[in-house]
Amino acid sequence: MNDFADRDDDKMKDAQLAEVGDDDDIYGEDGSIRQDFLTAIGAAIADRDVLFLRDHVIPLHESELGDLLESINASQRQALVKLLGADFDFAALTEVDEAIRLEIIDAMPNEQIAQALGDLDSDDAVYILEDLDEEDQAEILAQLPFTERVRLRRSLDYPEDTAGRRMQTEFVAVPPFWTVGQTIDYMRNEENLPDSFSQIFVIDPTFKLLGSVNLDRILRTRRKARIEEIMDDSRYPIPAEMDQEEAAQVFEQYDLLSAAVVDENDRLVGVLTIDDVVDVIHEEADEDIKRMGGVGDEELSDNVMSTVRSRFAWLLINLGTAILASAVISLFDATISQMVALAVLMPIVASMGGNAGTQTMTVTVRALATKDLDIYNAGRIIRREAAVGVINGVIFAVIIGVVAGFWFASPGLGTVIAAAMIINMLAAALAGILLPLLLDKVGADPAISSAVFVTTVTDVIGFFAFLGMAGLWLAHL
Amino acid sequence: MNDFADRDDDKMKDAQLAEVGDDDDIYGEDGSIRQDFLTAIGAAIADRDVLFLRDHVIPLHESELGDLLESINASQRQALVKLLGADFDFAALTEVDEAIRLEIIDAMPNEQIAQALGDLDSDDAVYILEDLDEEDQAEILAQLPFTERVRLRRSLDYPEDTAGRRMQTEFVAVPPFWTVGQTIDYMRNEENLPDSFSQIFVIDPTFKLLGSVNLDRILRTRRKARIEEIMDDSRYPIPAEMDQEEAAQVFEQYDLLSAAVVDENDRLVGVLTIDDVVDVIHEEADEDIKRMGGVGDEELSDNVMSTVRSRFAWLLINLGTAILASAVISLFDATISQMVALAVLMPIVASMGGNAGTQTMTVTVRALATKDLDIYNAGRIIRREAAVGVINGVIFAVIIGVVAGFWFASPGLGTVIAAAMIINMLAAALAGILLPLLLDKVGADPAISSAVFVTTVTDVIGFFAFLGMAGLWLAHL
Question: Boundaries of each CBS domain copy (chains A, B) (predicted)?
Answer without folding.
Answer: 167-229, 231-287
